[in-house]
Amino acid sequence: MRLAVVGGIAAGTSAAAKAKRVSKSSEIAIFEAGRFVSVGACGMPYRLSGDIKDPMKLVVRTKEDFEKSGIKVFLGYRVVDIDISKGLLEAVGPEGRINYQFDKLILATGATARKLGVPNEDLEGIFNLKSLEDLLSIENFMAQNEVRDIVVVGSGFIGLEVIDAFVKRGFNVTSVDIVTSVPPNFDEDVVEIVPSLLDSHGVRRIWGVSVIEFLGDGKVKGCRLSNGEELKADMVIVSVGFRPNVELAQKIGLELSVNNSIRVNEYMETSIEGVYACGDCTHSYSAVTGEPIYLPLGSLANRHGRVAGTNAVAGNRVKMPKIAGSSVFKLFNLGFARTGFVEKELKARNIDYDKVLIKARDKAHYYPTAGDIIVKLMWEKSTGRLLGGEIVGPVEAVKRIDVIGAVICLGGTVEDLARVDMAYSPPFSPVWDPVTVAANQALRD
Predict the structure, then answer these.
(1) Using an 8 Å Cβ cutoff, are 100 and 72 in contact?
(2) What is the pLDDT of residue 383?
(3) Chain segment 229-253, per-residue pLDDT in tens
(4) Would you call 17 helix, strand, or coil by DSSP?
(5) How far apart are CA 205 and CA 188, in angstroms?
């Protein structure tokens, strides 16, 4: 068995490693166009903040590590053509063009950071933060230029984490976004604290407007906004989402799905037998509705990879579970977590739901470090089936979201959530955990 894996950041390396463990006799090769393989990209904002001292610590396994385990890595090789009928791919890299014969194929081509599509977006000093190469370019630019004023365009998880990082290092940071509720994938009643949180840390907010042009001659000097204002900027980070890399998939005739991601079944197999896809180039299936949903998350990429790697070498015997879509991030001293569908997403799907939002203490009220926590639950009116949840509170407290996510994945109800045996000790929780309080409130409602 010869397995070719196209892409080697998270999903691809997870797939290759799992395939090798399942089938030690298989010949496995990873083709990665970038300079690095197996990167923990979610840690990059924490390198920018200075919490992580060495950026190379973000490399989980090196090319040499993989090759010691019998997995060949073609680093710096971009796959430019695939002939499915012949089981042949062509890649271009440091030593020219090579051809590789394969029996099975896994596409883990990832995603690309979206551009704004405005004039002068190619000026020096304007960056995305998607790859380790991006991170090193940002650090190199900052080392060679005097940077004081930074504009961050976009206020999703990464945009807010980047704001946090640069504030920690003492830069003047301006947040620009076309939306007015931040982060946009949470409900407004849950994240209403965010504006004051940013204000208290000296972040200038300009929301409800868009960037229409970047200013500068060779190097960025600022940006012009849709309200006519011009901002000074020594550096700009654009964080407005990702688009799946599907050029190769389209070239070989694979069907696409939600958000133009590669369509896969529960085995991570594409519309062509023997060809699998995993990670940010493809989708998952919702545990709430069963529909395909696009969530480019590192946790999912690794899970995708394990399933794709197993099935590519051992036949379709492992299914990728439907997901709740649990995610979490930190902004200064607070954590923000969500799972399932939030209220605005349920409305968009015309799902008949009910909701409850409670405020409580995350620890026993008398414990010195107790803080406020918000828990919001959504459930189906007719059945009580849990549909979603959101939590905002002290950073160490919001991983409670996993309990809600687990109940959603199991098809449970708010009554099931209320019955969960939650651990209690004053440094960790009140005697009635806030999640239990929310579930009990839902039952009373």
Answers:
(1) no
(2) 97
(3) 999 999 999 999 999 999 999 999 9
(4) helix
(5) 16
Cα angle 60, 62, 63; round to 5 = 145
Q: Catalytic one among 42, 223, 281, 409?
A: 42
What predicted TM-score, i.e. pTM, was given to this entire model? 0.96
Tokens of 28: 């496995």
Q: What is the mean pLDDT of residues 83-104?
A: 97
Tell me which residue of 440, 340, 438, 317 sits closest to 386, measured CA to CA.
Answer: 340
Q: Which segments within 324-436 are labelled E, that is strand? A: 327-331, 334-340, 353-361, 372-380, 386-394
- Helix residue spans in 23-156 (DSSP H): 44-48, 63-68, 132-144
List C-alpha distances in Å: 263 to 64, 266, 285.
33, 10, 11
The amino acid sitting at 194 is V
Query: Closest by alpha carbon to 26, among 104, 93, 127?
Result: 104
Q: Are 294 and 300 in contact (CB under 8 A)?
A: no
By three-state DSSP, how is residue 291 classified?
coil
163 in Cβ contact with 153 (< 8 Å) = no
Query: Is 42 assigned a catalytic role?
Result: yes
Check residue 343 and give its pLDDT.
Answer: 98
Q: Are 21 and 108 in contact (CB under 8 A)?
A: no
